[in-house]
Amino acid sequence: MTGGRDFTLKNVSQALRPSVAGSSSKNTVSFLSEWMKLFSTATRVSCELLSSRRNSLCVTWKVATGMALSAFLLTATLAWSQPVPGSLDVHWNEGASDCSATPQDPLQVHKYEPQTFILRQSPCADFEANFIYLLIGSDKALLIDTGAVADPKAMPLAKTIVELLPDKDHKKLPLLVAHTHRHLDHRAGDPQFASLPSTQVVPFDLEGLRAFFGFTNWPNGIVGIDLGGRTVDVIPTPGHNETHVAFYDDRTGILFSGDFLLPGRLLIEDAGAYRESALRVVDFLKARPLTHILGGHIELNAAGRAYRFGSHSHPSEHRLELARADLTALPTALERFNGFYARYPNYILTNPIHNLVALAIIAVAVLIFIAWGVRRLLRRRRG
Q: Domain check: are 373 and 245 in the same one?
């Protein structure tokens, strides 16, 4: 064969090799499109060769090749869409009842897989005991939250992150620092990153957040962050706080949920917005793999009971990861929420403002009752 007819299986293999090497679940559509173009060309050239001999052979060739290619593409697509496996076989730092008598590292680092790291701030360093996540792509890395401790001597977060970042072109990979929401325990470490080269810190206020990611109809719409061969989707999830977002990673299939969903107290600021956020996330993940839901804290023990607020000791902690079933049950739980407190196996719904108002009303009622009782007693004594 010569000229335009010089089309062999070897040529096809060489033509497709770059596409296979650079493909990901996000690029599947364009990748399959290239396959179909090559298949169409191969079929056309083959039929040109066969038509001079017997037309029925061309028809048979088209049907057989089409069926084989369809089966191959279906198998390949399913394989490409599978998340990269990782490990959560780790015992998290539980703090201590007496931290001064129990020295420990302020920051625990766990490698989930070679490009995904989970960092846990020690409960002794701060009772919030935040979880922080580092996702590494081929072009840049994403850090989700900076935790509850600002002092780099007490919490060497930036130093640790820089050590984990790979080199590219003889420099550390560029870093994007984002937050699940603006509460201080999720952004206290921001100043540690202010002077680092090739580092951007996403604003934590609502307007700054919307402008940076390009949200035009908050809280609707979802924005993707391209890290290079790895896309992280930013999903608006207000309800705990108006600035809250969750991050879905297409490489691992993990939803990084911050305070939106975690094994602990889900503090509700706006129940209606919270429920809409839950429905939004459930809908987004319907057709996507979900390996784990990883939140910003662990506040429950293995039996599902909450630790005392402010406790530096977390014995027998609940596992960090939650599952799809916990997420799909959340909209109904929020719809049935009484506005004060509701306990579920893996989380607790509570509205701290409503609870404080209720306690204040009770306290005032008790004071009124005591005053009335004292006044009545004094009247009896005078009589």
A: no
